[in-house]
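My hope is that you will study the protein record below before we discuss the fold together.
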Amino acid sequence: MRDARGSGRLAAALAVREAAEAVAAGEPVPEAARAEAVLAALESLSACAAAVERWDPVRSRHETLASTGYVAEALAAMESAFHEDPLFPAVRASGRPLRVRDIHPADRRGPMFERVITPLRFTDGVSVCLSAGGRYVGSLHASTVSVGVDDEAVSWLRLLRADLASLVDPLGGIVPVVPGDGGVLAWTPDDGRVLALTPSARPALLAGPLGALLHPSAWPSRLGRHLLVLRGGELSAVEARPAGRWVVVEHRPAAAPAGLSLRELEVLCGLAAGETNRMVARRLGVTERTVGTHVEHLLSKLGAGNRAAAAAFAVGAGLVRLPA
């Protein structure tokens, strides 16, 4: 019996490792296939119920990617309340699997016991939190009603933790830099899918001109460089980095270059787009004379001898004006 169990776990471990290596190599492994590989791995631990949960940083809750054996009420508890469980901070911080049997009886309380373990009469189980470079990506749960979770299963989960995390993580383990005062998005240019990685992420930034500008096939030299984006009277610095089949886009509030005012930046965007003073005036709702004054001021601040030099500065800075 032990040999059969060990053989099953070895096969599951190899499947997880192969899937994780494929993801790391940038191969298009479907999300469902990744989740099923993780679920099969959990089932090899002699569990009668198992669930793969991904953390949604925007909704601040988990979502179930794959499960077996748990009733709907139990999955709902994992999705909405696992992160509120009193044991969650310690499990997340340690990164180590936590078995029910290893929890002191006095500490067996909270939503996971009250809504999952006790009502479903599970006798043992294990939960583990998954992270990629310090970024929490989700959790795994396995429960039993007869045979307990053995030490080998706990060690198995610890050894495979990084591979399991890469399969649960929609970015495949890529670690974006999260600016303290901005937001982070993950974007697949081919199908347009946008995944917000922080609550302050602004998916609308990728609509229209900026999305086209950041597309690797359209302007690969822009990846990794800062873009100054003017939108609705606000200025943002945007940086895009390739991450396998994803592009990770980080944005943060920015100061105007060369001491230009936002209005002067609006005019500069027009120069870069080849607009005449009349066209800029019509777009901004001001007179041509006012635009001419702005042009004089921005040329002086930039040390540019003419409109073409100012336009070249705008292009070099990656200045993009998006619709308000």
